[in-house]
Amino acid sequence: MTTTTAPVSRLSRFRRSFFWHSFKRDKVAIVSFAVFVAMALAALFAPAVAPHDPYDLATINIMNSELPPAWLDGSDASFPLGTDAQGRDLLSTILYGTRVSLLIGFGAVILQAALGILFGLLAGYLGGRVDAILMRIADVQLSFSTLMVAIIVGAVFKASFGNLMFGEIAIYMLILIIGIAEWPQIARTVRASVLAEKKKEYVEAAKVMGFRTRRIMFRHILPNTLSPIFVIATVQIANAIISEAALSFLGLGMPETQPSLGSLIKSGFDYIQSGSWWITLIPGLVLVILVLVINLLGDWLRDVMNPRLYKG
């Protein structure tokens, strides 16, 4: 037992040390990670951090609508980033909206990964008709843009449930819509990795020992295909957040009464020409920063997990 576990433990320690060493040497990754953690923690603890509760109608005064940020004339010190057209504190709505956007982003990617890993494993390992059917379905879905699929499905759901009912289940619907629209990319990546792994000796040894197909796929092959999945999942979180913002801006996402970064941008778009630019610009800037740091972390993760690309 000792002779078999010692090399594995040494290898795992080497991987952790290499990962940590590469992270410490990459200043862009450090700054991106710090910004992302700060934004995620602020969004997670929004009820404790936010100065106001945008869901509490009793605290909202329409007379405070369109107040400018604190550094402009006519501002109110109790609203550091100003207010929106409904009189809600913009800082509070951004914190709550970032939490909603992150929830949709992570939820959609978890659904994408679950579908993509399952279908990719089945297609790559079983091959034959299963591979042909699943990959043709993926090809058909990839022939349409993700946003187009999301718009069509979102419009059907909204027409079926109505605006009131859709607003109550909007978060779950957006996770479902974006997750279903993006699974083929993960599935194709997993399939390619499985095709390479199933020809190796450890898989043949597992077959000779009489292990079941499910155990070989999930306990032997899947752990060796996780590196590209982590990279894709990181980038897909940013894509899912952008998709949510786009759908909300088009009126097919989160309603204005439940702030997300996309719905906040939409709610202030009509007030740009009247001079209340901060209602759209500040949430838009937060969205850009959030997506940027996630993409930068994804690029760093891709370089580290691919020895041919990493030059740290």
UniProtKB/TrEMBL annotation:
Check the record and name the Gene3D superfamilies matching this protein.
MetI-like
Q: Major location, coarse class?
A: membrane
Which keywords has UniProt assigned to this entry? Answer: Cell membrane, Membrane, Transmembrane, Transmembrane helix, Transport
| Highest taxon above the source species | Bacteria
Q: Which InterPro entries match?
A: BP-dependent_transpt_permease (IPR050366), MetI-like (IPR000515), MetI-like_sf (IPR035906), OppC_N (IPR025966)
Topology within the bilayer: Multi-pass membrane protein
Give the GO cellular component terms, alphabetically: plasma membrane
One Pfam match? BPD_transp_1
- Places the protein is found: Cell membrane
Tell me, what is an example of a GO biological process annotation in this record?
transmembrane transport
Q: Where is the ABC transmembrane type-1 domain?
A: 98-298
Question: Transmembrane residues, as ranges?
Answer: 28-50, 100-125, 137-157, 163-181, 221-242, 277-298
The similarity annotation says: Belongs to the binding-protein-dependent transport system permease family.
* Designated name of the protein: ABC transporter permease
Q: What broad taxonomic lineage does this protein's source fall under? A: Bacteria, Pseudomonadati, Pseudomonadota, Gammaproteobacteria, Pseudomonadales
